[in-house]
Design goal:
The chain has helices at 2-11, 14-22, 25-34, 39-62, 71-87, 101-126, 134-164, 180-191, 226-233, 247-256, 299-333, 383-389, 396-402, 415-421, 454-469, 473-489; strands at 171-176, 197-203, 219-221, 237-240, 263-266, 279-283, 286-290, 339-345, 351-357, 406-408, 437-439. It is of the alpha/beta class and 494 residues long.
Length: 494
């Protein structure tokens, strides 16, 4: 088995892996997991069992503290249930085959702290948290994650023991077609033992010389040999991974397999697309595959908007003296308005006015906008400091409250730059499927400030699209923290 796994890993050669990094392979791997027979189990734990365990811990800990459970207790328990279901995404990382346990533990701790912070913030604003004995609340905050960890470790041990038992029921699996999607599927089968699948081999009509060398030990024959092989070896599941151009052959193969009881699955070759929030959906009952969609649809959009509003209000309340001081300094050091308003592309390419403290003597907002450069003569006496420290962008928290921007997202470019680069960079306009952000994934990865070459802009767009593919509340919080560090050490903003 170890040799087999090693061969599978070798199939993911360097060139393939580099290409997959651009195409967000983790997203497709997640899709395989999401629609496997383990997904309902994981979803059930995330949406129900984990939140219920938190609530049960709340009520059980109340007993030794002699806390009476009244309406306030019900409100706090309900909030804990909802926030756990929304924010505690890392718990499934404790399950076998999904991640290294220590990495999962670190992410879990951070997410639980986010749940605690949200509960404390809501409790302080509403005042209901004052009704509880502090040692009781602190004990609950400490005990709940320990209970969750113990439960998941117990399940992990149980699942692994069941999977390794002699009587463990497993399914024999074959894959039709050797390509990137099928290689990811096979790797997932080997990496995740509680899928309870045994990979038997590939079937492909192509000559051996056209297949990866590491695939040949697993090649069982051509497609014509598949029906007989299924009968002889008791194959339970068949995964067809052929390109869209082979549709007639796929239909013919499915017709040939109707004489067997094996389950048949088709893996669409989504690697031909540049995936953004790829998912299965339906329209009026008709199944569809979303290829390029905003990650902020449905509940994700609600979570994103709530976090934007809450954080923006909190930040504005904290920094209003700074805003007043900068406004006065701008007015006293140069002629012109305090704020600079420039049209930018917003969500879905709609035009929005973005606010900034004026840092230049010009107010460019036409068909041609020249980016600021080092020692730019157009800068006001305090303009360079405002731009390097990003203080000029603080008024954009007002844009966030208006719903025109998000705290984290692709940085908005001047409309003139959008029209220029959309013709030069493939996929440039996809970044405008979401609201622009005050800070972004590209900015904390070294692409902040002037983009004087096409290569720099291409890298910025690559990070923007990577953010859309992999968005999570956790990633937003990480970007916000990294932004503070970048401001103090970055030398690219002028």
């Amino acid at each position: 088995m170890n040799d087999s796994v090693e061969n599978i890993d070798q199939m993911m050669d360097k060139n393939t892996l580099e290409a997959n990094i651009v195409a967000a392979p983790s997203l497709l791997a997640d899709r395989f997991r999401e629609f496997s027979n383990v997904a309902p189990f994981i979803s059930f734990f995330k949406l129900f069992i984990d939140p219920i365990l938190v609530v049960v811990s709340f009520y059980l800990i109340a007993i030794p503290f002699n806390i009476a459970m009244d309406g306030y207790g019900f409100i706090l328990a309900t909030l804990a249930f909802l926030l756990t279901a929304l924010l505690l995404d890392g718990m499934f990382l404790f399950m076998p085959g999904y991640s290294r346990s220590w990495l999962g533990l670190g992410r879990f701790i951070a997410e639980w702290l986010a749940v605690v912070a949200a509960l404390v913030l809501i409790g302080r604003i509403s005042g209901f948290i004052d009704y509880y004995y502090p040692p009781f609340i602190i004990t609950w905050f400490i005990a709940s994650p320990l209970v969750l960890i113990l439960v998941h470790i117990a399940i992990r041990v149980y699942v692994l023991r069941v999977d390794s038992g002699e009587n463990a029921e497993r399914s024999k699996v074959v894959v039709v077609g050797v390509n990137q999607p099928s290689q990811f599927l096979v790797k997932s089968i080997h990496d995740e033992p509680f899928l309870k699948m045994d990979f038997m081999g590939y079937f492909d009509d192509r000559a051996i010389s056209r297949l990866p060398k590491s695939a040949t030990p697993h090649l069982k024959g051509s497609l014509d040999m598949l029906p007989e092989y299924i009968k002889e070896h008791g194959i339970k599941k068949i995964y067809i991974s052929l390109p869209m151009s082979s549709q007639p052959r796929v239909l013919e193969l499915i017709d040939e397999l109707k004489d067997s009881t094996a389950s048949i699955y088709f893996i669409p070759d989504l690697f031909v697309f540049d995936l953004i929030n790829a998912r299965f959906d339906n329209v009026a009952g008709m199944p569809i595959v979303a290829i390029c969609e905003s990650p902020f649809m449905g509940l994700n959009g609600v979570i994103k908007r709530i976090s934007d509003v809450v954080l923006s209000l909190f930040i504005l309340l904290m920094i209003w003296p700074v805003l007043a001081t900068i406004a006065l300094a701008v007015k006293l050091t140069s002629a012109g308005p305090v704020f600079f308003k420039q049209r930018r592309y917003g969500e879905n390419g709609d035009s929005v006015l973005v606010y900034k403290f004026r840092s230049m003597t010009v107010m460019e907002d036409g068909d041609r906008v020249v980016q600021a450069t080092k020692n730019d003569q157009r800068l006001t006496p305090i303009g360079s400091f405002l731009r390097k420290s990003s203080l000029d962008e603080l008024p954009q928290f007002i844009n966030v409250l208006e719903g025109k921007m998000s705290i984290v997202g692709p940085r908005p470019h001047a409309n003139a730059h959008n029209e220029q680069y959309r013709k030069l960079i493939k996929g440039y306009m996809i970044r405008h499927k979401v609201k622009p952000g005050i800070t972004g994934w590209a900015q904390v990865n070294g692409f902040r400030g002037e983009t004087d070459t096409l290569d720099k802009m291409q890298n910025r767009i690559k990070y923007d699209l990577d953010y859309l593919r992999n968005w999570s509340v956790w990633l937003d919080l990480k970007i916000i923290v990294l932004t503070v560090a970048v401001i103090f050490r970055d030398r690219n903003a002028y």
